[in-house]
Design goal:
By secondary structure, the protein is an alpha+beta fold. It is 21% helix and 30% strand. It is built from 9 helices and 35 strands. It has a 5-stranded antiparallel beta sheet with strand order 1-2-3-4-8, with no helix packed on it. Strands 11-12-13-14 form a 4-stranded antiparallel beta sheet, with no helix packed on it. It has a 4-stranded antiparallel beta sheet with strand order 15-16-17-18, with no helix packed on it.
Length: 665
């Protein structure tokens, strides 16, 4: 249950839950007399009775609002003997509940309104009348046991076991499944004749929003398209808004940096619902309808001719589900499990088949990340796979591998940082980054956003991540599912914080800074000065704590010889002679390893050069042999017909030999 509301007369109570159902209760008779359901099946977050009450003809109403911003009104909310019943505007009305509906749930009607009744005891199997607990529970027959188990699952909002069927809290076609529950519930039990207690099972975890399995495709950094005013895209480049008015539908494009491009608006004739934006182009897309095929439109800012935009229609029965853009390329995911690649000028480059239903795309530079399903979800846990490609070079950067998600969570956002690191964000608020370490297949948890907000109903709408320093950019939504379009929301900066142990200590903070600088380097980037500075601080802290062995380990992590010499100087000046001796030996060992590596590289280079020289000499010999054969077969060579052979070997710096005839060759 999310929200409850009393009627103006104080007799009737309305309750609404995460399943989108509203139940009306009569406090006097202690019964539930009516139930409504939100047409969208979305959880209801607010209820308000018409203050006019039963005294007014228009007072027979109950207003509601759901998690995604819908507002509706239920008609005919008072009992028929109190006021006339009407139709539900904004929701559909189910059949009235029976008078003994509470008994069908397994809850005595006389107990539900008692102050000392504890529903948690009943959920966990504790007997509120005899004091019997769940681990000591004994039933007279197996049917009653199944009824009790079903009731516990329903009250917790979780899934039933397969042997018991689907959850009883769901309502299909306006019919309450409460009518399908067993109507017999033992009011008294005889402790003398009891079978062995069944194995105790932990109740399933409660989720505020049931996961849709499989996860539907989505566009990162976008709000739902059914809203009249919504964000088609909000990233670090700019904002794309859609405004659906009664007269016309417009798309507004605004850039954070006015020097990139001026703001502009275009008419949304094809009802575009997806967008991707870079400094080079704007991409718009829409799914197919019965009359119009799926469309893809590109507005190329860098085009130097008079036609800056182009449009392409997809084949029939194929619909775009996600789009992405990079440097010189555009990617679209379709419902046919096909990945279509275009150039920003409109050239169709490739069509790739993906072994699963695609969920979303992410693009940056030449990199493209593809997320798709690879198996059925079990216990509301998705099986998602991520595949990272280099579109410009047509090669694979990271092979397909499992995308880690929190338990009972869905993927909320996917994208690249300004430095090219792939980032994921799930519905539990966990941010992960694909690190180049360990072969480029390791995902590091770098932030728990739930610890950065003050209220459980608050969360972050992720926009992107900056580079140097690594900071997450997002919009704080206070009590809202999505950020409002107007006025323009302000982006917040969130510092990364890895889930290390004892984060309140100075040591853990320094370790967090070092790990971020070391593990979150972009591909090809070497250890920088920041890494050495963090290690020196950790080294000084270890020396201060008289942890010499730990300090020696930290010195071994120094990226260069200069940093190690600084550590040696610090150890000597702080009177850690034994530590200084071990660091000196460590420096000598590192120097020997460096010389050995250089020698191996030198001999490898010489071997490669000698091999190339032999190949060149062999090629020259074959050329001269072919030339001599042609001379012998042709007319006699005169003085002007000569064969020149130039070679440059290892012993001789260079020499030119002139052969007068083929025999001399």
């Amino acid at each position: 249950v999310n929200v409850v509301s009393w009627s103006p007369c104080g007799r009737y109570l309305a309750s609404a839950g995460v399943d989108g159902c509203v139940t009306l209760w009569d406090h006097t008779s202690k019964t539930a007399y009516r139930r409504f359901k939100n047409e969208n099946g979305i959880g209801i977050t607010s209820l308000e009775w018409n203050p006019s009450g039963m005294e007014s003809e228009k007072g027979n109403q109950l207003a509601f609002a759901d998690r995604e911003g819908y507002v509706g009104v239920f008609e005919g909310v008072y009992p028929s003997n109190q006021s006339g019943r009407g139709s539900a505007g904004g929701g559909q009305e189910a059949d009235p509940l029976a008078e003994d509906s509470l008994l069908m749930e397994g809850i005595p009607a006389d107990d539900i309104f008692k102050d000392d009744y504890n529903i948690e005891d009943d959920i966990m199997g504790n007997d509120v009348t005899t004091g019997y607990h769940g681990d000591q529970e004994e039933e007279e027959d197996g049917d009653v046991v199944q009824s009790r188990k079903r009731r516990r699952m329903d009250l917790m909002g979780g899934e039933r076991d397969e042997e018991y069927g689907s959850r009883s809290g769901d309502i299909d076609d306006g019919q309450s499944s409460l009518l399908e529950e067993e109507q017999s519930f033992p009011r008294q039990r005889d402790p003398a004749n009891q079978p062995p207690p069944p194995p105790k099972k932990a109740p399933p975890a409660f989720s505020e929003k049931q996961l849709e399995c499989p996860q539907k495709p989505f566009q990162p950094s976008a709000t739902p398209s059914h809203l009249h005013h919504h964000f088609m895209l909000y990233n670090l480049v700019g904002v794309v808004r859609s405004h659906d008015d009664d007269e016309a539908t417009m798309i507004e494009v605004e850039f954070h940096n006015a020097g990139t491009h001026h703001a502009f608006s275009i008419a949304n004739h094809y009802s575009y619902t997806m967008a991707a934006l870079s400094e080079q182009a704007l991409v718009l897309a829409c799914g197919r309808t019965e009359d119009i095929p799926s469309q893809l439109q590109c507005v190329h800012f860098g085009s130097w001719d008079n036609t800056k935009d182009w449009t392409v229609s997809l084949p029939s029965k194929e619909s775009i589900t996600a789009v992405a853009i990079g440097d010189g390329w555009i990617a679209t995911a379709t419902n046919k499990q096909q990945l279509r690649l275009f150039s920003t000028g409109g050239v169709q480059r490739e069509v790739l088949s993906v072994p699963g239903a695609m969920v979303t795309l992410g693009g940056w530079g030449g990199r493209l990340a593809v997320v798709y399903h690879t198996g059925p979800c079990t216990e509301n846990v998705f099986s998602l796979t991520v595949w990272v490609l280099d579109v410009r070079r047509r090669r694979q950067l990271h092979p397909p591998h499992t995308l880690p998600l929190s338990h009972h969570a869905r993927l909320e956002w996917l994208g690249f940082s300004e430095g090219g690191l792939l980032i994921s964000y799930d519905s539990k608020g966990i941010v992960r980054i694909l690190s180049p370490a360990y072969g480029g297949l390791s995902w590091l948890p770098v932030l728990d956003t739930t610890k950065q907000v003050g209220n459980k109903s608050d969360h972050y709408f992720i926009v992107g991540m900056t580079h140097n320093p690594h900071q997450l950019r997002g919009i704080l939504c206070r009590g809202l599912e999505y950020p409002p379009v107007q006025p323009k929301p302000v982006m917040s900066t969130i510092s990364l914080k890895m889930p290390l142990c004892e984060m309140s200590t100075e040591k853990a903070e320094l370790e967090d800074q070092y790990l971020q600088a070391e593990l979150l380097r972009t591909p090809g980037q070497q250890s920088n000065t920041a890494t050495a500075q963090h290690l020196m601080k950790l080294f000084a802290l270890a020396c201060k704590s008289n942890r010499e062995f730990r300090a020696c380990e930290i010195a071994g992590l120094m990226p260069d010889e200069r940093s190690m010499n600084l550590a040696l100087t610090y150890a000597s000046r702080t009177q850690h002679a034994r530590l200084a001796r071990h660091i000196s030996e460590l420096i000598q060992h590192k120097a020997m390893e460096f010389e050995s590596e250089n020698e191996e590289d030198y001999f490898e280079t010489e071997s490669t050069g000698r091999t190339n020289q032999i190949a060149e000499e062999e090629s020259e010999y074959q050329y001269a042999k072919a030339r001599s054969t042609s001379l012998n077969q042709g007319p006699p060579a005169d003085d002007t017909e000569k064969v020149l052979l130039c070679y440059d070997n290892f012993e001789n710096s260079g020499e030119t030999v002139v052969f007068e005839t083929a025999e001399q060759v």
